[in-house]
């Protein structure tokens, strides 16, 4: 399946090494723990997360008097699934018979526009009436790129000129969505992050405009992160979590990276659920994130 295929690089860098360690070491000793720690950190699971995970494993080994390395494999898998199961919903919140507004935030190049296109396709194929708002008026080509996706998927795009006020675009998009009986409005935003104050001001203005029209909007704020940037993605997530009221994460480009372990670090350190993952550049390459499926795809 696609999930398994898309995660092959992570499997190669992480699980193959773990398997090799289990086979080679046979017995659990200090050296075994150290090597396992190194492999996990190398796969971008993150130092804090790895240390907590190792503590859990040691405790379990002691309690159950486990000596053989291979016996640790199912426990490691179980612990990772536990880390990923935050108890929060992975579903994208969609209102019934009412307009749902979803805002996409994240720095340039992470895959925001592509993700909006893919999600529009997914929602449309589920029978939803979808509209896109070209709120990234800053990045050169962002508006055109969204229009290309709109055409490809068969949904309309509300846009202004490049450089226009994003909040004005979002305002127009909400008016259009209301008059056209749209179910879901997907809003792109600019990824200016060189200055946190700027980012917050721009997003706050969009929130104000939205909330004047629809008090509960935005119903979702999805932060898009590029998995290939590893620990950097985690730093971005921390910044946006503080300033943007993020309700869920989208992790893109998992297909192109051995750093899939970042999924685990993000859950452990931020406690925001990864809702969607990108596994390629095509329309169908977007999947709802499922922890069990993820772990079994990499350990398969
Ligand atoms: P934005 O600046 O955040 O809007 O980023 P874009 O949507 O323009 O994406 C930047 C690049 O990443 C493009 O070349 C996309 O095709 C590519 N991309 C986006 N998502 C994925 C993914 O899940 N997998 C892969 N391999 N490439 C992706």
TrEMBL record:
Single GO MF annotation = GTPase activity
Read off the PROSITE patterns from this record.
SRP54 (PS00300)
> Which Gene Ontology BP annotations are present?
SRP-dependent cotranslational protein targeting to membrane
Keyword flag Transcription regulation: no
What are the record keywords, sorted? Cell membrane, Cytoplasm, GTP-binding, Hydrolase, Membrane, Nucleotide-binding, Receptor
Judged by the first EC level, this protein's enzyme class is hydrolase
Topology relative to the lipid bilayer, per the entry, is: Peripheral membrane protein
Q: Which reaction does it catalyse?
A: GTP + H2O = GDP + phosphate + H(+)
Q: Does the keyword Nucleotide-binding apply?
A: yes
Primary place of residence?
membrane
Per UniProt, residues of the SRP54-type proteins GTP-binding domain are 273-286
Which PANTHER family did the record assign?
Answer: SIGNAL RECOGNITION PARTICLE RECEPTOR SUBUNIT ALPHA
Q: Its function?
A: Involved in targeting and insertion of nascent membrane proteins into the cytoplasmic membrane. Acts as a receptor for the complex formed by the signal recognition particle (SRP) and the ribosome-nascent chain (RNC).
Q: Which family does it belong to?
A: Belongs to the GTP-binding SRP family. FtsY subfamily.
Q: How would you summarize the oligomeric state and partners of this protein?
A: Part of the signal recognition particle protein translocation system, which is composed of SRP and FtsY.
Protein's UniProt name: Signal recognition particle receptor FtsY
């Amino acid at each position: 399946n696609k999930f398994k295929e898309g995660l092959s690089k992570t499997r190669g860098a992480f699980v193959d090494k773990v398997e090799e360690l289990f086979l080679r070491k046979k017995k659990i000793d200090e050296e075994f723990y150290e090597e396992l720690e190194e492999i996990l950190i190398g796969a971008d699971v993150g130092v804090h997360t790895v240390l907590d995970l190792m503590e859990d494993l040691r405790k379990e080994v002691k309690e159950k008097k486990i000596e053989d390395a291979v016996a640790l494999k199912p426990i490691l898998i179980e612990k990772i699934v536990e880390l990923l199961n935050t108890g929060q919903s992975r579903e994208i919140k969609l209102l019934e018979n009412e307009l749902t507004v979803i805002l996409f935030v994240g720095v340039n190049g992470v895959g925001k526009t592509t993700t909006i296109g893919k999600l529009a396709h997914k929602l449309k194929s589920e029978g939803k009436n979808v509209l896109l708002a070209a709120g990234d008026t800053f990045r050169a080509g962002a508006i055109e790129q969204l229009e290309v996706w709109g055409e490809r998927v068969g949904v309309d795009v509300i846009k202004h000129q490049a450089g226009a006020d994003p909040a004005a675009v979002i305002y127009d998009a909400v008016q259009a969505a209301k008059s056209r009986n749209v179910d879901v409005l997907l809003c792109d935003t600019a990824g200016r992050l060189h200055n946190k104050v700027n980012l917050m001001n721009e997003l706050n203005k969009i929130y104000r405009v939205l909330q004047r029209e629809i008090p509960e909007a935005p119903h979702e704020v999805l932060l898009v992160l590029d998995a290939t940037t590893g620990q950097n993605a985690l730093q971005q997530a921390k910044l946006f979590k503080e300033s943007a009221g993020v309700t869920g994460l989208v992790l893109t480009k998992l297909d192109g990276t051995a750093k899939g372990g970042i999924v685990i670090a993000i859950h452990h350190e931020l406690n925001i659920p990864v809702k969607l993952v990108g596994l390629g550049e095509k329309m169908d390459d977007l999947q709802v994130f499922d922890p069990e499926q993820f772990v079994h795809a990499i350990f398969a």
